[in-house]
Design brief:
The structure holds 2 protein chains of 2 kinds. Helices cover 24% and strands 22% of the residues of chain A. Chain A is α+β, with helices and mostly antiparallel strands. Chain A has 3 domains: 3-97, OB fold (Dihydrolipoamide Acetyltransferase, E2P), CATH 2.40.50; 123-194 and 202-228, no CATH class; 243-457, Chloramphenicol acetyltransferase-like domain (Chloramphenicol Acetyltransferase). In chain A, a hairpin with a 4-residue loop joins strand 12 (309-311) and strand 13. By secondary structure, chain B is α/β, with parallel strands linked by helices. Chain B contains 13 helices and 24 strands. Chain B is 31% helix and 27% strand. In chain B, the strands form 6 sheets. In chain B, strands 1, 2, 3, 4, 5, 6 and 19 form a 7-stranded mixed beta sheet that branches. Chain B has a 5-stranded parallel beta sheet with strand order 8-15-9-10-11. A 5-stranded antiparallel beta sheet of chain B has the order 20-21-24-23-22, with helices on both faces. Classes of the chains: A alpha+beta, B alpha/beta.
């Protein structure tokens, strides 16, 4: 019997992934430990290693396949002595089929209850009726949902208007609420968009339909977006797993997290001076302004621990460790590797860690635990010359710090104009967790530390 | 020679196949049905329909023997077995003709013969070993159904040991019948023969009759059957069978004990096996397990372009489930958007014994096993005006709700006309109503359906009439 290679689950919550690349062709010899494929998950690309020896018999799921379910057969490896004939009848094909061994009464095993797969075309409101706030089940202000779905949503505190219905005519049914609650297997993921041949158009001019897939809100059906843009030519950029994750998490955050922002201007001449001195002392490290910001933020968390917290239905969870996620821009998205226990790490350590994390982030080689979690995040757009901006909180974090460019600005000192290097920093807070005064305490303590960097060395 | 290239070929013209074909035709597909025996399949010709005709006769027999309570008396009540069977056959024939008409009306081409896959997108039709036609289609649906399972030592012989097929057309009424298996088929024949006056013994290997039903319903049914004079052995198996000239003697093991039962005829109803032979499945990627074809939620097999629906893909072995699968399968092939996989939790089941049994969804035991916290409502027929007026005071309507969400998890009914009532709960389940909407619904008075309302009320401690 050929050996079935199954789609691996790279994390406990992973339900599907994309098959980014095959490293073996059919017929290639396979040794245990060989990298045979690359799987693209929500945020990273992972390598799949062979566990068995033999020869690549059949590639079941082709390169580029999206939304491949965990445990689906992706390839068949022939053992020594087996020939291709052994492949007949093996494997389950590319489509998810019945589980391998249904009991004699195959009924329950064979049919997953209810999950109504969502067709991307399911009941988009007619183009003429396109309007803000419309959703799949919202016809003229009336929300169609089954009584059971209504009750379950009410009990779980879910706003039905945020859901997209998979029932008849876009009616919201139990399975949709279960999907929103994140019950495994409650709803099938939307089929991944196939890269479509598209008329050539300058990519820059393409209105990239930033679709938060499947979490509802107004419909972003392609057809509607194109119509709304006036049917101008466009190029279509298929969603990556990362794009979908960014879309989903940012919509989740903006819709569910009550943000408010606090901005301060920090004078960083002293910091820049200290940085130059430190960097001149050794070539073993190169400390960036951002590394100072990471350390200052981490230490500030010790002073104002109430900001190092997350909202949960039952209680505010105040974290007893400071893990700082730092946004790293990638060519086609971003990722937030984490400096763990940053309050216990010196500048040189933070600098070295960030350098390594950023490099591996750009190569798509981060391990899951290196970018999942964190208690606070930092987004720095200073290198682009941005003066200041508001960042979107990365749930479940309670706050995020947006760091602008350090630039010379006129300031008033002792009643006279002077020049200082100023960096504006804006803290976005989840008001459920961090009230205005707490946020203000935090940002003031942070500013004090940045402006008097010696305190950071304590 | 008729056209041989189609968009869709359906192998099997039963309630799965012919419904799939009509739906396909409605969707503009050029469609063919290949049927080896009778349009309408087992259901229409040798199953659901003719047995309902027989059971109607047995119900009348029952009434005629209980006329007194209604103020009648009758002398010399008798029936003619031949005429009873003739009526049943006539009913089946009428409906089979109806199916032929419907297919014709929808411009579905029917081929008389056995269909067999013959290479990708090809079906060879043969009749009695002789080729009839070679057909081609992009999509093929296998809807070949199932047949009675047999047991070693109990092989049907058409004379003493019957399957449903012979049991449906008795030449004379046997004085005694041994029914092996107490699922829907077995218990319906047991009911028929008992009400026609035969002594009936039922042997069931599991610990209760109609074992697919809720345990409480099984217990209720057993009591009712025994009251009618049926002998019932559960946890029992037929260990040996002596076939005499015109009767049998069966050795039945019940636990550690053994007993002998003499009967004129044996009716074998121990489940079914799928018709997966001679279909040319060899050499395709279609997978068969335990005589059933494996399919995904859209009824697709592992071989692209080959689908399977109905009894041949597995339980519940019900005509309406086959029809529904046929529609889902065809609509998916046609690329319709609003197609949803079958939810077996919403497939009602009906058994036309006396008293009738009907159910949908989870049994109480299964709901508990699934870890659900539940509320159970019950309402007995004795509390319902219409039931008493009908002279049908025995029965029970049981409902099961999720205690937290109010989801209707299951409904289980036994008593007069419950097979006509269960659709109410099936609609409720499909629309995902909770107890609240069922409570708000106004049920007409006086009807049996009021008990459906009361059972829901009872689950929340609010029953009015009991």
């Amino acid at each position: 019997m050929p050996i079935e290679v199954l789609m691996p689950a790279l994390s406990p919550t992973m339900t599907e992934g994309n098959l980014a690349k095959w490293h073996k062709k059919e017929g290639d010899p396979v040794k245990s430990g060989d990298v045979i494929a690359e799987i693209e998950t929500d945020k990273a690309t992972m390598e799949v290693e062979a566990v068995d020896e033999g020869r690549m018999g059949k590639i079941v799921v082709p390169e580029g396949a999206q939304g491949v379910k965990v445990n689906e057969v992706i390839a068949l490896i022939l053992e020594e002595g087996e020939d291709a004939a052994a492949l007949a009848g093996s494997g389950k094909g590319a489509a998810a089929k019945a589980p391998p061994a249904p009991a004699s009464t195959a009924e329950t095993a064979k049919r997953a209850p209810a999950p109504a797969p969502e067709s991307p075309k399911t009941a988009p409101p007619p183009v003429a009726a396109a309007r803000a706030g419309g959703n799949g089940a919202d016809h003229g202000g009336r929300l169609f949902a089954s009584p059971l779905a209504r009750r379950m949503a009410q009990q779980a505190g879910i706003d039905l208007a945020q859901l997209k219905g998979s029932g008849p005519q876009g009616r919201i049914v139990k399975a949709d609420v279960e999907a929103a609650l994140g019950k495994p297997g409650a709803a099938r993921a939307a089929p991944a968009a196939k890269p479509a041949p598209v008329p050539a158009a300058p990519a820059a001019a393409a209105p990239a339909p930033a679709a938060p897939p499947r979490i509802g809100g107004p419909s972003f059906a392609k057809q509607q977006v194109v119509a709304a843009a006036g049917n101008i030519p466009y190029a279509e950029i298929p969603h990556t797993g990362m794009r979908r994750t960014i879309a989903r998490r940012m919509v989740e955050s903006k819709q569910n997290v009550p943000h408010f922002n606090l901005t301060v201007d920090c004078e960083i001449d002293a910091l820049l001076k200290m940085r130059a001195e430190l960097n001149a002392k050794s070539s073993d490290y190169k400390i960036s302004v951002n590394d100072f910001v990471i350390r200052a933020a981490a230490l500030t968390m010790r002073k104002v621990p109430r900001a190092n917290a997350s909202w949960s239905d039952e209680a505010v969870l105040q974290w007893q460790q400071v893990d700082i996620a730092v946004a790293v821009a990638l060519e086609d998205g971003l990722i937030t590797p984490i400096v763990k226990r940053a309050d216990q790490k010196g500048l040189a350590t933070i600098a070295a860690e960030m350098k390594d994390l950023a490099a591996r982030a750009r190569a798509g080689k981060l391990k899951l635990e290196e970018f999942q979690g964190g208690t606070f995040s930092i987004s720095n757009l200073g290198m682009y010359g941005i003066k200041d901006f508001n960042a979107v909180i990365n749930p479940p974090h309670g706050c995020i710090l947006a760091v602008g460019a350090g630039e010379q600005r006129p300031i008033v000192k002792n009643g006279a104009l002077a020049i200082a290097t100023v960096m504006s920093c804006t803290l976005s807070c989840d008001h459920r967790v961090v009230d205005g005064a707490v946020g203000a305490q935090w940002i003031a303590a942070f500013k004090a530390m940045i402006e008097d960097p010696l305190t950071m060395l304590l | 020679m008729a056209d041989t290239t189609f968009d869709l070929i359906v192998i099997g013209g039963g309630p799965g196949g012919y419904v799939a074909a009509i739906r396909a035709a409605q969707l503009g597909m050029k469609t063919a049905v290949v049927e080896r025996e009778h349009l309408g399949g087992i259901c229409l010709n040798w199953g659901c329909i003719p047995t309902k005709a027989l059971l109607r006769s047995s119900e009348i027999s029952h009434l005629l023997h209980h006329l007194d309570q209604f103020g009648f008396s009758a002398k010399d009540v008798a029936y003619d077995t031949k005429k009873v069977v003739e009526r049943s056959r006539k009913v089946a024939k009428q409906l089979a003709n109806g199916v032929a008409f419907l297919l014709k009306k929808n411009k579905v081409t029917v081929f008389d013969g056995e269909g067999r896959l013959a290479g990708k997108g090809k079906v060879a039709v043969a009749k009695g070993g002789k080729p009839v036609a070679d057909l081609a289609a992009k999509n093929i649906i296998i809807a070949t159904g199932a047949r009675a399972r047999t047991l070693p030592g109990l092989e049907p012989d058409g004379k003493l040991v019957w399957t449903y097929k012979e049991a449906m057309v008795p030449e004379t009424m046997p004085k005694s019948v041994l029914v092996v298996g107490s699922g829907a088929i077995g218990i319906e024949f047991a009911s028929f023969y008992r009400n026609m006056g035969a002594e009936v013994t039922v042997v069931e290997v599991l610990d209760r009759v109609v074992p697919a039903e809720d345990e409480e319903i099984s217990a209720f049914a057993r009591k009712a059957f025994e009251k009618q004079g049926m002998k019932i052995h559960t946890g029992a198996t037929v260990k040996g069978l002596k076939r005499n000239a015109n009767a049998v003697t069966a050795t039945i093991a019940v636990g550690s004990k053994s007993l002998e039962v003499a009967a004129d005829r044996v009716v074998l109803a121990v489940g079914i096996v799928g018709n997966v032979e001679n279909l040319g499945l060899e050499g395709t990627r279609v997978r068969v397990e335990k005589t059933h074809i494996l399919v995904d939620e859209w009824l697709a097999t592992d071989e692209p372009g080959i689908f399977a629906i109905g009894d041949v893909v597995g339980p519940p072995w019900l005509a309406h489930k086959a029809s529904h699968e046929g529609v889902i399968c065809v609509e998916k092939i046609a690329g319709l958007n609003d197609v949803h996989p079958l939810d077996t939790g919403n497939v009602p089941g009906c058994t036309y014994c006396m008293p009738q049994i009907a159910s949908v969804g989870l049994t109480e035991k299964k709901a508990r096993e699934a870890g659900r916290e539940i509320r159970v409502g019950r309402f007995p027929y004795i509390g319902n005006g219409k039931a008493i007026a009908l002279g049908e005071p025995e029965g029970l309507v049981k409902t099961i709700f999720d205690a937290k969400t109010g989801e209707l998890l299951g409904a289980h009914m036994i008593g007069a006309e419950v097979t006509e009532l269960i659709q109410g709960y099936a609609i409720a389940k499909t629309l995902e109503t909770t107890e609240a909407e069922l409570m708000h619904t106004i049920f007409p008075h006086p009807t049996l359906s009021e008990m459906m309302h009361e059972s829901v009320l009872d689950a929340y401690g609010r029953a009015i009439h009991f």
